[in-house]
């Protein structure tokens, strides 16, 4: 258990929090964070069997794995910040799900949730991430964009390219659980660091609370502005509390690098541009992320990361790389081909409408992105190659998208010429 | 009782750092909550673990409307009203016409004390209805209760209601197991309540685990109805077509007293005290928790310049026929008492009966083209 938190908080990180909160009370608090213990046990007036949720109509990962025995084992536990199992599963209880779409059905309130509630989270992670087993496997991180090849798409098909991920600030609770003070601290830390970015990354922060109408309209026109979450999947977990306090958007002057503060995660980092130069988008993504990390470390902070789960985020579905790399691509003929879904599946890609998750495709234009997050690194070699121990990384994921989109464009061109297309073979089963 | 270790963690941050940004807010909580009050209360928790941040969350999340003043806070248990009195007493005073912390509230559910009410003109008064809420002692309230507690409340309620007899004999329909046929019938009878969608309610946590532990009971005559575990533990409703408010109120009082008797026998009476009357989730429903009203046709009066003033003087409020936050259709309004705390059930229903009678007479006068200025009452 201790190995998950092997990146001990540095002295300078402690100074960072002390200067914000002040006083010797907090010094004591920080010293105790060196190891993960569960917090004070939760005392309740009813036995676990009386509290166990009714999940008979539910179809989400939490409901599939939360047995009465696991519930009874975990229900009296709390993380050091006081986050409980009932809080973690509330969104999955409130949202039974859909017969075809299997949502995750639970969130983490803090970094320690993934340890304290591992008996439930590990099987959920395993199901969601193709058999990845957090108790035995390691997640590789790779942000070396030079490994990417063939990342420049035909702009007659690819309208825009985008890579996004999330990052959490170690030591502060996550959006479902954070207090107003913690959320404001996240904003301070991130905005302070972003102010240090230079050259093509230099930019400006727009706080949601003080935004002018003109600024708001510009951000909407640029498709940058995020709204208060309305999806009950998010609101039921408590992420929208105190809106819009400490929420905001930062972007560089060139409008190609964007950071959302305190939406579904502490930060969402986005690199994007019109056209098909995914390689350049990913380069900027990697450089920007590394710079931001360096800047927060200078101030004594770090990102939540461990070698089992990679980058720690609110939703278990975003663990690992938290990366979604994708394009808006015109595939009118493919959109009418009944083999499209199978092809996407075998390419390890997912399709969404151009409004993002849960929207419809308009005029045969799709948002195509990677399916996987965990166990695979950011860069990727073609999915046909041998797999290794552990997983694939960010580079691997972006390469998967690049190879997949190139294949889809080839198919579209063949259909235009009246030629037939082939469904590619499925990849090796990712994890045993 | 549950320890609130999350609140202990939060205390490591200062009151100033945690204080909500209420600069754009217009609700009772935002008007009353100062940094001093917040600093004083933030370290407290009721025995069940409810804290001041829990009380105010709905008011922080819903800044309100420039014209409509919402309450902006809820209670999580009976003890909330004591533990957070520095915040809640001024809010109660603002909401309930200057009600003081030393004032006493009189309960009067003796329907024989109501004068008249059986002769409202059915050509104008389409239906009559009285509702209130009740909380069951020993359980925490909907913003805070666990699944186990909510199911405990449901179980007790089913037992209590099952023992009702005569005109009150009826049946319980749990929301979880409802068939489509049952659902359609309850919708057609205007009985079925939905999962709350208003963020005023959802942000307070009242819709958690829906529809677990929720249901509707009604008597076979379809004139007496109980909602279980919606915004309060129980909402009790007596209603019928036409204008016989006297009968509606009689059945209301008798039914309520029967139910209360059964709960007391199970050692779970209703939450009540002599200062705040019946304890409910929303401070706006303290006292009697009673809303007695009619659906009445007032197409001419409702467009009269003095309509609002007449309502205010009669201590009545108007709503659309879909209930709170809806518009009136075809000149038909829902007219009910505005007061809850500081006057009794009989007094409040009396105001409805007398006020509606007067307004119907005004409507008739306006139909004949006559003026109504001489009829406008003094402030009650």
TrEMBL record, chain A:
Annotated ATP binding sites: 160-164, 223, 268, 324-328, 352-357
Domain Phosphagen kinase C-terminal per the UniProt entry, residue ranges: 157-415
Source taxon at top rank: Eukaryota
SUPFAM superfamilies (UniProt xref): Glutamine synthetase/guanido kinase, Guanido kinase N-terminal domain
GO process annotations (BP): phosphocreatine biosynthetic process
Subunit structure: Exists as an octamer composed of four MTCK homodimers.
Any one cellular-component term (Gene Ontology): mitochondrial inner membrane
Record keywords: ATP-binding, Kinase, Membrane, Mitochondrion, Mitochondrion inner membrane, Nucleotide-binding, Transferase, Transit peptide
EC number: 2.7.3.2
Compartments, record wording: Mitochondrion inner membrane
UniProt membrane topology term: Peripheral membrane protein
InterPro entries for the chain: ATP-guanido_PTrfase (IPR000749), ATP-guanido_PTrfase_AS (IPR022415), ATP-guanido_PTrfase_cat (IPR022414), ATP-guanido_PTrfase_N (IPR022413), ATP-guanido_PTrfase_N_sf (IPR036802), Gln_synth/guanido_kin_cat_dom (IPR014746)
Positions of the Phosphagen kinase N-terminal domain: 43-130
Cross-referenced PANTHER family: ARGININE OR CREATINE KINASE, CREATINE KINASE U-TYPE, MITOCHONDRIAL
Family statement: Belongs to the ATP:guanido phosphotransferase family.
GO terms assigned for molecular function: ATP binding; creatine kinase activity
The protein, known as: Creatine kinase U-type, mitochondrial
Function field: Reversibly catalyzes the transfer of phosphate between ATP and various phosphogens (e.g. creatine phosphate). Creatine kinase isoenzymes play a central role in energy transduction in tissues with large, fluctuating energy demands, such as skeletal muscle, heart, brain and spermatozoa.
Principal location class: mitochondrion
TrEMBL record, chain B:
Cell wall biogenesis/degradation is among the record's keywords: no
Keyword Transferase (UniProt): yes
Phosphagen kinase N-terminal domain boundaries: 10-97
SUPFAM superfamilies: Glutamine synthetase/guanido kinase (SSF55931), Guanido kinase N-terminal domain (SSF48034)
Binding site for ATP: 127-131, 190, 235, 291-295, 319-324
Enzyme Commission designation: 2.7.3.2
Domain of life: Eukaryota
Keywords: ATP-binding, Kinase, Nucleotide-binding, Transferase
PANTHER family named among the record's database cross-references: ARGININE OR CREATINE KINASE, CREATINE KINASE
Family, as annotated: Belongs to the ATP:guanido phosphotransferase family.
Protein name in UniProt: creatine kinase
Native source organism of the sequence: Dissostichus eleginoides
Lineage of producing organism: Eukaryota, Metazoa, Chordata, Craniata, Vertebrata
